[in-house]
Amino acid sequence: MSGSDWNPEHYAQFRGLRLRPALDLLAQVPVLPDGAVIDLCCGNGAVGAALAARFTGRDVIGVDSSPAMLDEARKTGAYSGLVGADINDWQPEGGPALIFSNAALHWLGDHAALMPRLAAMLAPGGVLAVQMPRQWGAASHRFIRDIAASLFADRFANMPETPVLSAVKYWEMLAPLGEVSTWESEYVQRLEPQAEGHPVRMFTQSTALRPVLAKLNADETRAFLNAYDAALGAAYPLLPDGAALMPFRRVFFTLTV
Predict the structure, then answer these.
(1) Going from the N-terminus, what domains does the chain have, and what CATH number goes with each?
(2) pTM score, two decimals?
(3) 81 three-state secondary structure
(4) Cβ–Cβ < 8 Å for 74, 63
(5) How far apart, in whole angstroms, are the C-alpha atoms of residue 140 and residue 145?
(6) What does each C-alpha distance from 89 to 5, 44, 85, 129 come to in angstroms?
(7) Average pLDDT for the chain
(8) Chain centroid, CA 22 distance in Å
């Protein structure tokens, strides 16, 4: 796996598991003022149809930095517009009624500055709705760091920690900006058997593994994945049919300004 762009096919393999938290977040979005709906880091457009159905008659704009993902999002027909932009540089046209971000903002640091910046873009009464993985300490993600540092210390000795905080910390951060609701949920995901590799590895390979695999050649990738699969087998024992259960924690919030 190489290059900086996302692989929509790999990401979509677990579409249902990745969509459920987005729908849980969407269900908590309150009544909105006039304005557009922004699907921030829309990816392959998995949430586009749900946003368009919930907010009929509004412009639904997808924003993402990946050309491959935007191509897939375009095929859904759910968006009135698609914008190629990095979150750090993106500025909306006018004040949107909703900025909705599903499983994206954990890739960015300094949330104490990022979240207020996004909130300031909203129309009065607008909503910032965010869901992020909070899986940093789980075996699925800890093994990535430990194995990379063990095998390739020259490149992975000091991998940065995730910026994702607890629901309590986001409440404390955002409460001065408006009406806030925060919560965490742990989803027990049943991952189907795979022809190659542990089922948990196949889940992380399109997301958390990307920064590591992008820096490895073919031989190094093979060595890393062999070690990762072995470690996952101990932490996530296979069920009789070859599937595996993977608990996955996520943090959510809505902020009405």
Answers:
(1) 8-256 (3.40.50.150)
(2) 0.87
(3) strand
(4) no
(5) 10
(6) 18, 20, 7, 19
(7) 92
(8) 10
